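# nightly structure sweep
# worker-07 picked up a monomer target from the shared queue
# config: single-sequence mode, recycle default, output format = structure tokens
# input follows
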Amino acid sequence: MAQQQPTQGYAVPQDNRTATVALVLGIVGLMMGVLVVAPFAWIYGRKARNEIDSLPGVYKNRSVATAGYWFGIIGTVLLVVVVVLWVVMGLIIGASLDELTTDY
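# output follows
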């Protein structure tokens, strides 16, 4: 996606589409429990914030990008916690099954 250059004169700021994508992915990740999309919300939110900051006056929805960014961070942290819990549970179940099948 090509970056737009600031226009001369008066121009109406527009919405950054990447910010909207980040917010939607963040909401889907947290509210729907699809935590796998949370890192993408984080990435797109950061990208949108950088685009908005680099082109002042062109885009108007930095708060949307920031919300998507933070939803992405929170969802990614939750994703890591869930994966760690699954690994720990797998190790505990594996160890207990190993004890049950060991002959003395």
